[in-house]
Design goal:
- By secondary structure, the chain is of the alpha+beta class.
- It folds into 3 domains: 159 residues, Beta-Lactamase; 87 residues, Orthogonal Bundle (Helix Hairpins), CATH 1.10.287; 148 residues, Heat Shock Protein 90, CATH 3.30.565.
- It contains 10 helices and 14 strands.
- Helix 3 runs antiparallel to helix 4 and helix 4 packs parallel to helix 10.
- The longest helix has 50 residues.
- The two termini are 71 Å apart.
Length: 474
């Protein structure tokens, strides 16, 4: 029920909060102002009471009957009759009432004297009469004809309280008007401030997966809304790039999958259409198995890429020697290299060790060496080198003696399904994902991979990995 009463629009909520905060500030300010005004006026009453006590001291006397009385015709005190408008009570230290003026009547002004009331100086305090009237009273002990007296003089605080109440009543009429005007101004100001946000919301509502190239306005403004627009525009740019990569990846993947499937279908259809011998059928089945192997490799690579993009791959780091990794990776290609008359060399520092996921780093290095073996000519040489720089960076370099790669292809060589020569890559059995997987495996370890190539002089893939652990023996 309370949730339904909440205003729908943020500008309404901001306006209400503005009014609430302003009302709270005004209420607190008025309360403190009224309190300090009351204290100041009461202090003035205390000052007047002290002055009047000094006047009363010169007007007191004991008459012939020994009763305390107050002279009204004392020539040095022409305003002495004004004392009748004050509340005056005189007691003995024991508490006996010796004198009360007519205005006080039979009402008691503070009861019996306190032990130290008015001894050394004037003693001010607030109290109430018997009928509840609030008063500000000042007391002083004064000797008259050798007899100690406790003089009490008070003023009523009701006029002060009446002035405070009048001020409160006037504020009660003015405050709503001020809050209404402030609320109207706050509403207009909030509406103007949120105008760019509403425009951004309208523009964002029109953006779809087909219109990710559009951007929100106000991204050049330096305020918070401009920062918000810049953040959303950066998000849209990343989404646009991701959607484009997804479209390109889907298109390339479907094309790559279509090729082996079409080959399987054509080989099977040809084998079924003719009445061949056993050897012909074996050749057909062998061709189909080669395409199945290629298709399986492609699907495994796609699965690895997909899991890497989703962040679902869990690394299992261990400490190992980098030279052992290089030897093991190169060992997979010894037979293939011998068939092509190629030679694989491995050199570098034996003591360089690192911590990482050996499986994925092995896969990255295998993909790079496989690429070097494929494109190096018969009789060529593949160099694998391991070393550590003084800055603590591990380097793995794989160089080949192939034709090299033109500069316009270097920046895109790690893109998925990218091939410099499509027909040649398919004949070699490539999927166009090996270098992309290698790049991911290196970067997930905090490293980087780059291609150094000069057309006609071969390629060198350089892997840079974070600082090694130590040069240790295992």
């Amino acid at each position: 029920m309370i949730h339904n009463l909440r205003p729908r629009h943020i500008r309404t909520r901001l306006t209400l909060w503005h009014i609430f905060v302003l009302a709270s500030v005004l209420a607190v300010t008025w309360s403190f102002t009224a309190f300090f005004l009351f204290l100041q006026l009461r202090e003035q009453l205390t000052h007047y009471a002290v002055q009047e006590i000094e006047n009363v001291e010169g007007l007191l006397y004991f008459n012939a009957g020994g009763k305390l009385d107050l002279r009204e015709d004392y020539h040095k005190h022409p305003d002495s009759k004004r004392l009748l408008d004050r509340l005056l009570e005189i007691r003995s230290p024991e508490g006996s009432v010796l004198y009360r003026n007519e205005r006080l009547g039979s009402r008691s002004l503070g009861g019996n004297p306190l032990p130290d009331e008015g001894e050394d100086q004037f003693s001010p305090r607030s109290t109430r009469l018997d009928d509840g009237t609030p008063v500000r009273m000042v007391s002083r002990r004064w000797p008259l004809d050798g007899r100690p007296l406790v003089i009490r003089l008070a003023f009523s605080e009701e006029p002060i309280r009446a002035r405070i109440e009048e001020l409160a009543l006037a504020s009660a009429f003015v405050l709503p008007i001020a809050l209404i005007l402030a609320g109207l101004g706050g509403y207009l100001l909030t509406q103007r401030a949120l105008g760019p946000l509403q425009e951004m919301a309208r523009r964002a509502d029109r953006i779809t997966s087909e219109r990710l190239n559009e951007r929100l306005p106000n991204d050049e403004v330096g305020d918070e809304l401009g920062q918000l627009a810049r953040v959303f525009n950066h998000l849209l740019a990343r989404l646009e790039q991701s959607f484009e990569q997804l479209r390109r990846f889907t298109s390339d993947a479907s094309h790559e999958l279509r090729t082996p499937l079409a080959s399987l279908r054509s080989v099977g259809e040809v084998a079924l259409q003719k009445d061949g011998c056993r050897e012909e059928y074996r050749d057909a089945i062998g061709s189909m198995l080669e395409e199945v192997k290629r298709l399986t490799t492609l699907i495994d690579s796609l699965l690895t890429i997909s899991r890497a993009d989703a962040g679902c791959i869990q690394l299992h780091p261990t400490i190992f020697r980098v030279m052992d990794l290089a030897r093991q990776a190169a060992g997979f290609f010894e037979v293939l290299a011998e068939e092509k008359g190629q030679h694989i060399t491995i050199d570098g520092s034996e003591g360089v060790s690192m911590k990482g996921d050996r499986v994925f780093l092995m896969q990255a290095l295998v993909n790079i060496i496989d690429n070097a073996v494929k494109y190096s000519p018969a009789g060529g040489t593949i160099h694998v080198r391991v070393y550590s720089e003084q800055a603590g960076t591990i380097r793995l370099e794989v160089g080949d003696s192939g034709p090299g790669i033109a500069p316009e292809h270097v920046d895109r060589i790690f893109n998925r399904f990218y091939r410099v020569d499509n027909s040649r890559s398919r004949q070699a059995g490539g999927t166009g994902l090996g270098l992309a997987i290698a790049q991911w495996a290196v970067r997930v370890h905090g490293g980087d991979i780059e291609l150094l190539s000069t057309p006609g002089s071969g390629c060198t893939f350089r892997i840079s990995l974070p600082a090694p652990i130590t040069s240790a023996s295992f």
